Every structure is written in structure tokens, then in C-alpha cells.
Amino acid sequence: MATSIVIVLLVLLVGYIIYVFNKMIKASNLNLEAFSNVDVALKKRYDLIPNLEEAVKGYAGHEKYTLERLTNMRTNLSEKMTIADRERQENKYSVVIRDVIACAENYPELKAAENFGKLQDALVKIEEEIELARRYYNGTTRNYNSFIQKFPNNILASILGYSMRQFFEVDLMSKKNVELDFEDRRKNNRQGVKDEEKD
Fold this sequence. Notes:
Elements: H1 2-46, H2 49-56, H3 61-75, H4 83-106, H5 108-112, H6 114-149, H7 153-160, H8 182-198
Helix pairs in contact: 1-6, 2-3, 3-4, 4-8
């Protein structure tokens, strides 16, 4: 009788472990898939670089410099980047792309150009996609983190090497309308490059 009870308890324990493991795998895969959607949307912003180059071509040397920085950022993207590293990279990208868009204020003929207007509209649309994908990713991250923090799930998660994942925040142009001083931004960008080189 005692042996039967032990066997039943062991079967229940194994069944529970399998259930928790499967749920953990599902939550983890859903989270990774959600970030791949964020990644696709973010890469669409980088795909605008050739269009930006064409739109601002011939207006000022500074725009060429900022566009080169954007191109370098796209080149430096890596699948091995952590979420925190990617977040920093994307926030730098947002600052530089704001700089390029702000140049339209200094060049009325550029601001009035049809292709530049379409480019701004495309950027806003892409950033809306990024925001939706980011919210979904952060939702799956919250669910995954909550699941592996609960007792006794946390014991199994620790044994299997599952750990908490970071939320993803990115500073998008469309999140806030900021008045930009182009001259001050140029100084800040040069200082930022110097700081990056020191790092």
C-alpha cells in the first residue's frame, strides 16, 4: 500500500515537472518569437537609410556625416547582442535619425520636397509598428518572468538555467515631439562620437 502511494506521488511529481517544463518552453519560445518581430520592425528603419541619403543629398556635409553613422550602426548589428546592448544601439539610432529629420527645418526646399515628406510618413508608420511589436514583446517578457519566478517553478527554472529576461524600451521619434536645435545637436553628436571612441 505504502509503495503504491509512493509510486503515485512520483508519477504526479514527474507529470507536474513535465507540465511546468513544457509551459516554460512555450513561454520562452513565445518571448523569443516576439522579439524577432521587434527586430524585423527595427530593421525596417535601417532600410530607410538609402532613401534618406537620396533625400538629403547635396544639402550639407553634416547630413553626410550623420548618414554614415547610421550606415555604421546598421553594419554593427549582431544577433549576439544582448537586449540591453540592442536597446542602447536603437536609442543612439533614434538620436541620429532625429538629427537628419531636423535638418529639414534648416532647408525649406528639402522640407517641402515630396520624397522627404513621404520618407517622414514612412518613418512614423514604421515606428508605430515598432511600438506595437515592443509592447507585445514586453507583455510576453512579463508573462515569462512571472512564470519562472513563481514557486515551485523557480526551482525547476534555476536547475534548467532559465533566467529573467529584460524588457525592451526604445526612444522613438513619434513618441514625443521635441523641438531640436540643429546646431546644439551637431555639437552633442560630435561629443558622443568622441565618447564612443574613448569606450
